[in-house]
Amino acid sequence: MPNNKDSTNDETYRVRKLEITDKNKGFMELLQQLIVCGPVTDDEFQNRFKEFESYGDDHVICVIEDATSSKIIATGSVFIEKKFIRGCGKVGHIEGIVVDSSARGLQLGKKVVNFLADHARSTGCYKVILDCSADNKAFYEKCGFKEKEIQMIFVRGVNFSPFLFKQVNSSPVGHSQQVEGAIEIYFI
Ligand SMILES: CC(C)(COP(=O)(O)OP(=O)(O)OC[C@H]1O[C@@H](n2cnc3c(N)ncnc32)[C@H](O)[C@@H]1OP(=O)(O)O)[C@@H](O)C(=O)NCCC(=O)NCCS
Fold first, then answer.
1. Does the C-beta of 17 come closer than 6 Å to ligand 1?
2. Ligand 1: nearest atom to the Cα of 135
3. Which of 64, 117, 178, 186 would suit a FRET pair with 147, their CA atoms being 20 to 30 Å apart?
């Protein structure tokens, strides 16, 4: 495990794309630190991995493997959305950023976000966006993002009556109600 900021610059903590064998290196356990994942069998993992693989550069999941322990200690993903607007432009959506609790504060999260934003840029995206809690706003600002707009959410099985959609940022407008401190953040 890294023990200082400089150690994150060497090859020991290289960012690479997810590999099918990463399930055996603690990838799912790492995701559990982000959100409840539920059980995923090896077959389910492999099928979903192959599905993602078929999207090529349009859906990239990256990881950092600790070369010493062979454990996956950081991950994140970017989805490239193709639009008609902006001359058939593209937008990158960053999701699922998480660093193992024992390796936080060592620039690994920033490294993952930079890798994904660079990928979005290299595929021609005119902007990169993500949603985050108010607690993580400062982290994404350190990665070069800025707060912009609001986030709306519709969750299957959750009754938002009397409002169909809920605003989830910290400055409610109209009749929306705040359900969590999420904000939308833009890069580029
Ligand atoms: C948020 C998270 C990914 C940050 O990863 P990390 O590797 O610890 O962050 P880094 O070391 O790359 O931090 C980069 C910079 O952001 C700062 N930073 C990180 N988290 C921060 C926070 N919550 N609030 C304020 N600043 C923060 C760091 O101090 C560092 O600043 P510096 O460059 O001036 O030294 C990590 O804490 C995590 O996995 N949290 C749980 C899952 C989660 O909430 N993911 C985000 C989902 S939107």
1. no
2. 23
3. 64
pLDDT digits (tens, 9 = 90+) for 23-72: 999 999 999 999 999 999 999 999 999 999 999 999 999 999 999 999 99
CATH number of residue 27's parent domain:
3.40.630.30
Domain for residue 126, yes or no? yes
171 within some domain: no
In a domain, 80, yes or no: yes
Pocket of ligand 1 contains residue 151 by CB under 6 Å: no
Contacts of 102 (CB under 8 A, 6+ apart): 1, 73
Closest ligand 1 atom, CA of 140? 16
**Predicted model pTM:** 0.88
Atom of ligand 1 nearest to the CA of 106: 11
Residue nearest to atom 20 of ligand 1 (CA): 139
Q: Can you name the residues that pair with 183 across neighbouring β-strands?
A: 132
